[in-house]
Amino acid sequence: MLRRTIDRSLFEQMLEKLEQGVYPQWVMTDPEIFELEKERIFGHTWLYLAHETELKKPGDFVTRWMVHDPVLLVKNRDGEIKAFLNSCTHRGTILCAADRGNSRAFTCPYHGWTFNMDGELIDVVAGDRLYGDKMKRHEWNLRPIPRVESYHGLIFGNLDPNAMPLTEYLGDMKWYLDILLKRSDGGVEVRGTPQRWLVKANWKNTFENFTADTYHVQRGHGLSVVQARDGSFPWQATPPEARPMFERNLAPDQVELLKRTIVFVGGVFPNFCFLSPVHRAGEHMHNYLTVRIWRPVGPEQVEVWSWFLIDKAFPEDYKEEAYQGYLATFGPSGTLEQDDTEVWARVVEANRGLMVQDKDLSYNNVSNYLLGYGHIERDESFIGPGIAFPCTYNDHLARSIHRYWLELMMDETAPSGEGRR
């Protein structure tokens, strides 16, 4: 792995400033910072790839990205989901160019090398005649992604073979994800294909915007829980017949939280976010789960990937109306998506100036993270795990995200990954 370095004292100054409630504005889009992030952040953290329901039959495949590493996920004949670097081992070109499909084998468009569903090289054009016994095919199989693990259908990958297990990495966030993923018999399923669009923004900006609100737990993960004081939309307006199922599948405290909550919105560091809202679709209110990633394309651009998920056990007409509501609100042209993307683009524009790019940490180039600093106390009565605050308007979580970012950026133990435990 590449070994880029930036003076550690600069990060130490950032941490000192963050503890004072300010953070450098230029760090969001700095090219040198971005190159180091690819190595120290995205090279060692768990990145969301797909949901298991996208790969139903043997031969089903999807292609995804881990920042700039192309990934091929395929279900083999034994029903296992395999993940490989989507790059032919002959000359390195992208092996499979399709977004999704079903295939028993993958043939490289460049020189015709062919691999099976287990990533094994099964055919080389004129191989025996041209290579003789000098080439051993098993040495040229597709390269597996070092770590692939799933949590209730959510498939994550990690480029660090020594990374902590996914369940350990998720920490207390598992308790909240379970409310959304385990409440129904059979779990959730993907409907449609993930929508993708490019945004002029930095991934830290988008992740913070989606995640950093009322509530936060360990490792830079965060969650906001929005509840109605008047008791409107109980159980997130889910079908009444499903609620006994929720009570059967969840712990009493999880049931109590679900019963009173309208919206769950949060994220798992570094770039996985989720939202479970209540929206009007047709004549009724509906609930669904959308998950998304902010794939960094460069320091000033992200590719947004957005999935729609819903409980398998819900009635079909409820699922379809909820899906239509999702498309109208959180798709690339949705009514609730466009405002943020315009503001993120303006952040990029402002960060190109000479004043902001000055690396001296002064008044001229820092952003304000003082909201709630020092005077909003923790909510010790909150029923879930983690650290809770009672007020939406505070920067406790945002500071926590950037503090963890700094911890990883200063970790010079890469690529061993031991420092991430």
Quick summary of this structure?
With 421 residues, this protein is α+β, with helices and mostly antiparallel strands. The protein has twelve helices and 22 strands.
Our estimate of the beta-strand percent is: 25-35%
Secondary structure: helix percent: 25-40%
Q: State the CATH topology of the largest domain.
A: Naphthalene 1,2-dioxygenase Alpha Subunit, Chain A, domain 1
User: Please, how many helices?
Assistant: 12
The CATH class of the largest domain, by name, is Alpha Beta
What best-fitting shape do the alpha-carbon axes yield? globular
Q: Which residues form runs of ≥5 with pLDDT under 50?
A: 214-218, 415-421
Query: Got a strand count?
Result: 22
CA distance, first residue to last residue: 20 Å
| Mean pLDDT over the residues | 89
Using only C-alpha atoms, the radius of gyration works out to: 23 Å
CATH superfamily of the largest domain: Naphthalene 1,2-dioxygenase Alpha Subunit, Chain A, domain 1
Q: Please give the oligomerization state of what you see.
A: single chain
Structural class: alpha+beta
Largest sheet: 8 strands, antiparallel
- Please give the domain count: 2
Under the CATH scheme, which architecture of the largest domain would be assigned?
Answer: Alpha-Beta Complex
